[in-house]
Design brief:
Elements: E1 3-7, H1 20-26, E2 31-33, H2 42-51, E3 55-60, H3 80-97, E4 101-103, H4 115-134, E5 139-142, H5 158-168, E6 173-178, H6 179-185, H7 189-195, E7 202-205, H8 221-231, E8 236-239
Parallel strand pairs: 1-2, 1-8, 2-3, 3-4, 4-5, 5-6, 6-7, 7-8
Helix pairs in contact: 2-3, 3-4, 4-5, 7-8
């Protein structure tokens, strides 16, 4: 049976961030993820996890200036030192929360920047992060993101991601498989889930179009959940969608999996 993690940056928006931990636990989630924990000290995050018996499935490394539209620095030329400091900061939070997966966002490529040069920096940064975090038992993952939601984002497809992973050549770098993004950019989800089996320690879901609940739209998620079970996938499936209304009211899709009450 699939295991679902509540993405607290997307669902349970009815309450403040720190209150979303209890809301997730009350609905039956056993793990959480989110984009960024850095507005709160790591010990505060750890306290919430421990209080409600939750696991920390995933979070992102520092993304740069989010308010200015930055979405990561790993592929940004000239920002290598900032990226490395971000790796160290993420490690502090990973240790405090016993999190074993950290996502390194590639970033939005500035207009006119040479993609080949960006890829070279990206590969070097990821190799550094993979090596450093391997010593601490934390795996680095990269996620292809569609170029409609984030125009100019450097990493867009699983094919590109696997090429980067091959170039980095470190076993501590893996793929984050967000089926919402994959559907928009590539489709053929069942085939990709099978072909990429073993390369992704984390999956994320949302309905398409709209990025709402996974029972809305064109993707047959129950079929894909059964496929993950068939393949023996044991990682978390992150619920990274925008509820159409109140979060709990939209969890009907998850009741068969023990979520939602």
């Amino acid at each position: 049976m699939p295991k679902f993690a509540a993405n607290l940056s997307f669902i349970f928006q009815e309450v403040g961030f720190l209150d979303r931990f209890s809301a997730a636990a009350e609905c039956g989630f056993r793990a959480v993820e989110y984009l960024s924990p850095y507005e709160h000290p790591p010990e505060i995050i750890a306290e919430q996890l421990n209080r409600y018996g939750l696991m920390q499935a995933l979070f992102n490394m520092p993304p740069g200036d989010w308010a200015a539209g930055e979405r990561g620095t790993a592929a940004l030329v000239g920002r290598e030192q900032e990226f490395r400091k971000g790796v160290e900061k993420a490690l502090l939070y990973a240790k405090a929360t016993n999190c074993r997966l950290v996502h390194a966002m590639a970033g939005v490529l500035p207009a006119g920047r040479d993609p080949a040069e960006a890829e070279r920096v990206y590969v070097g940064n990821l190799r550094h992060a993979a090596e450093l975090l391997a010593r601490e038992g934390v795996t680095v993952i990269i996620e292809p993101i569609n170029n409609r939601d984030i125009p100019g984002y450097f990493l867009n497809t699983t094919t590109q991601a696997m090429s980067v992973i091959e170039q980095v050549g470190h076993p501590n770098l893996k793929l984050q498989l967000d089926l919402y993004h994959v559907q928009i950019m590539e489709g053929d989800l069942a085939h990709r889930i099978r072909t990429l089996d073993g390369h992704y320690p984390h999956v994320q879901i949302a309905g398409n179009p709209g990025r709402n609940e996974p029972d809305v739209g064109e993707i047959n998620y129950p079929f894909l959940f059964d496929l993950f079970d068939e393949l023996g996938y044991s990682g978390w499936i992150g619920c990274e969608y925008r509820p159409k209304g109140e979060t709990r009211a939209g969890l009907g899709w998850a009741k068969r999996y023990g979520i939602g009450g």
